[in-house]
Automatic annotation (TrEMBL):
SMART domains: CHK (SM00587). It comes from Cotesia typhae. It holds the Pfam family EcKL. InterPro entries: CHK_kinase-like (IPR015897), EcKL (IPR004119). This is CHK kinase-like domain-containing protein.
Amino acid sequence: MTKAAESWSEVSKQCVEKLKNLQNAAYSKACEIGKLREDEFNVINHGDFWVNNMMFKYDDNGNVIDHIFVDFQICVYGTPALDLQYYLNTSPREEVLIIIKIC
């Protein structure tokens, strides 16, 4: 991504430098975020929590009356923020993202 950003005239040199610095620290930061914290609230995370891994049951009027999660291949015990972050980066409609940004 850094190499591509260097060729984009819209991206400032300062932003490219930040991306370069981030690439050196991103893996270790991601590992740190995923570490289990025994003194925090923890749950069993799905690990691939997005709308295509949910099945919905509808009534005759098209209202959701039940749902289940499927495809439990990447479960991990840890902060519920992991699944929430994954879902918010993959599944909401644009209107939902705009409301989140406003809040």
